[in-house]
Structures are given as structure tokens and as C-alpha cells.
């Protein structure tokens, strides 16, 4: 059954951190896009693009304030909270103000021309439409390599991620409302939506080059996101500690038998290697185990505080 919905109100949600170089291109581009969709009766006239200034330290907020486009709204967060929370701030802001929204990066790497297809899918009944990178030619070798490894690792851990989908997606207002029930401080949005299980579809696109400026996702932030993704959705690292602990226990039991055997048969060996090697080995495993437990403990600590994830300082 295909259920064609009436003209939806659409919000484009764009987190921006120090994006003064790209906004001069992005704002007119998206305004023109929205205008053409409105003229072609794809979306309603009150649709808009929402820019979320994630505590930028450059002219991002000034540029947003001086823009003249009637289809552009902006909110300013009081400090830099990172891409996931900034996106969450935008999604929360548009909840119950629109019929659907599309989140995309401010640098236009996500191909905005497929948004039309996303809206068509939404009007056919999809509650979530995932933008999936059909081509990663524009990403550096290192980025696509580590991303590939990450998706595979998550799959192994039983986390239902859409392969090569980042944060370019359409969400219906129904999904936005449901999203508000997820109060977790450790947010990994691309893991949440597949878990929700709403009717969804996929739109493929070619990831483009950044239109201007530099990436705001250095390796350190990517690693942080990966650790958050794994520890927020899987207990496997904790289980692995148990397995490793068990293996080491069995091994040390066997070694003890061997030592006893040597003792009784009077074979005396200078025992330097057999003492120091297990020491380093066990020390290493213990530190690793403590680190993993600490990572989870830290997460629990942050969750129990249940602090607000961001603060909106200004609206325009
Ligand atoms: N971003 C943000 N807060 C941050 C880092 C990034 O809002 O702390 C935004 C950034 O402005 C961009 C999007 O997140 O719109 C994706 O970042 P970027 O393009 O730098 O990442 P890449 O595409 O290189 O992975
Ligand atoms: Mg980018």
C-alpha cells in the first residue's frame, strides 16, 4: 500500500563548528534548494534550514545573524559540545515544529541533491531514510580504512549499524518524538535509529569534497566517537576481559604444574625469563582490563549525573 502524504514541512538540520569558510556557500545553496522544492510543490512554504552553531570561535554566528534568507533559522549553543550533541540539539529544536527533517553536514559533503528522493520515500511511508555513501572517493585512504574497520568491528559486536551511513538521514516527526525518550548522555545517534525499528529505506549518494575549510573531525575525535559507539551499545569488551582472564588462569595453572614437575625431578633452571615474562604479560592484561572497566564506569558516572547535553544561548 502506498500512502502519499500531503505537502510536508521540512527542516534541514546542520551542526556547524568554526564553519565561517563554508557558510557563504552553504546558506545560499540550501536556500535555493528549499525554494525550488517549495516551487515544485514537494514541501510546504514554511520549511526551513536550521543551523546549530556548536560554540564556534570564529565568525560562524555573525554570518548566521546577518543572513537575509527567510528560510534560515539558527540557534547558538553556549559552548562546543561536539557534533553528536549539536545534532541532537537541532533535532530536539525542530521536534513537533515540522513533519520531517534531514540532518546533514554544513560543509555540503553530503549530496543535497538526493534530499528530494528522501522526501519522496517519506511521502511513500518511510519514517527514516538513510543516506548511504555509494562512493568514498573523496575520503582519504586512512579515513575510509579506519571507517571500514569500525563498521566491521561494530557488526562483530552485534550492533546493527547501516554500513557507510553517517549522519545524513531523514527522520519523520514520529521518530523525532520517540528520540526524545532516549535520555542517554553518551550519544551515538547512528546506532540508535536502526535499533528503533521504524519503517526505513536507503538512498545512495556520492560523498563529495568539503566545499571549503578544514575537517573538524581529527583522528582523536573519530577515535572518541568509535569508543563511544562500541561501549554505548555493547558489553562485549567486558565479556572479553572475562574470557582473557579465564585463559590466563588456565595457562598459569598449567605453568604451575610444569614448575612443580621440574621441582620434583630436580631440574633447576635459572628462572629469570619465566618470572619476568608473565609479570609483564599479566601486568599488561590487568591494566587493559582496568581501562575497559574504567571506560564503562565513567559512562555510568556520566549517565547517573544526567546533566543537560547542551544549552541554547541564542536563537535567530
Ligand atoms: N561539527 C560540530 N561540532 C564539532 C565538530 C564538528 O558541529 O565539534 C560539525 C561540522 O561543522 C560539520 C559536521 O559536524 O558540519 C561534520 O564535521 P566535519 O565535516 O569536520 O567532519 P568530516 O566530514 O571531516 O568527517
Ligand atoms: Mg565534512
Automatic annotation (TrEMBL):
Subcellular location: Membrane
Domain of life: Bacteria
Membrane topology listed for this record: Multi-pass membrane protein
Signal peptide: none
Cellular compartments per GO CC: plasma membrane
Domain Glycosyltransferase 2-like: 13-174
InterPro entries: Glyco_trans_2-like (IPR001173), Glycosyltransferase_2 (IPR050256), Nucleotide-diphossugar_trans (IPR029044)
Gene Ontology terms for molecular function: glycosyltransferase activity
Key word Membrane present: yes
Protein name in UniProt: Glycosyl transferase
Organism expressing this protein natively: Solitalea canadensis (strain ATCC 29591 / DSM 3403 / JCM 21819 / LMG 8368 / NBRC 15130 / NCIMB 12057 / USAM 9D) (Flexibacter canadensis)
Amino acid at each position: 500500500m502506498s500512502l502519499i502524504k500531503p505537502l510536508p514541512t521540512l527542516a534541514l538540520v546542520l551542526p556547524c563548528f568554526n564553519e565561517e569558510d563554508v557558510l557563504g556557500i552553504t546558506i545560499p545553496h540550501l536556500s535555493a534548494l528549499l525554494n525550488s522544492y517549495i516551487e515544485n510543490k514537494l514541501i510546504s512554504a514554511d520549511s526551513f534550514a536550521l543551523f546549530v552553531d556548536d560554540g564556534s570561535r570564529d565568525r560562524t554566528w555573525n554570518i548566521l545573524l546577518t543572513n537575509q534568507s527567510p528560510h534560515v533559522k539558527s540557534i547558538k549553543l553556549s559552548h562546543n559540545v561536539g557534533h553528536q550533541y549539536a545534532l541532537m540539539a537541532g533535532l530536539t529544536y525542530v521536534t513537533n515544529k515540522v513533519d520531517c527533517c534531514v540532518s546533514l553536514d554544513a560543509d555540503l559533503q553530503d549530496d543535497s541533491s538526493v534530499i528530494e528522493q528522501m522526501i519522496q520515500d517519506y511521502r511513500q511511508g518511510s519514517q527514516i531514510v538513510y543516506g548511504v555513501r555509494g562512493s568514498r572517493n573523496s575520503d582519504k585512504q586512512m579515513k575510509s580504512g579506519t571507517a571500514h574497520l569500525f563498521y566491521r568491528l561494530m557488526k562483530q559486536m552485534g550492533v546493527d549499524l547501516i554500513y557507510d551511513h553517517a549522519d545524513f538521514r531523514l527522520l519523520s516527526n514520529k521518530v523525532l518524538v520517540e528520540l526524545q525518550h532516549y535520555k542517554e548522555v553518551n550519544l551515538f545517534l547512528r546506532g540508535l535509529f536502526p535499533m528503533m525499528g521504524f519503517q526505513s529505506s536507503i538512498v545512495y549518494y556520492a560523498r563529495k569534497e568539503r566545499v571549503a575549510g578544514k575537517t573538524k573531525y581529527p583522528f582523536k575525535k573519530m577515535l572518541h566517537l568509535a569508543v563511544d559507539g562500541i561501549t554505548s551499545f555493547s558489553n562485549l569488551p567486558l565479556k572479553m576481559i572475562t574470557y582473557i582472564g579465564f585463559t590466563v588462569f588456565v595457562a598459569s595453572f598449567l605453568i604451575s604444574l610444569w614448575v612443580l614437575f621440574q621441582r620434583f625431578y630436580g631440574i633447576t633452571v635459572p628462572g629469570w625469563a619465566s618470572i619476568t615474562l608473565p609479570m609483564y604479560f599479566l601486568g599488561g592484561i590487568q591494566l587493559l582490563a582496568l581501562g575497559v572497566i574504567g571506560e564503562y564506569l565513567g559512562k555510568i558516572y556520566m549517565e547517573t549525573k544526567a546533566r543537560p547535553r547542551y544549552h541554547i544561548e541564542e536563537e535567530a
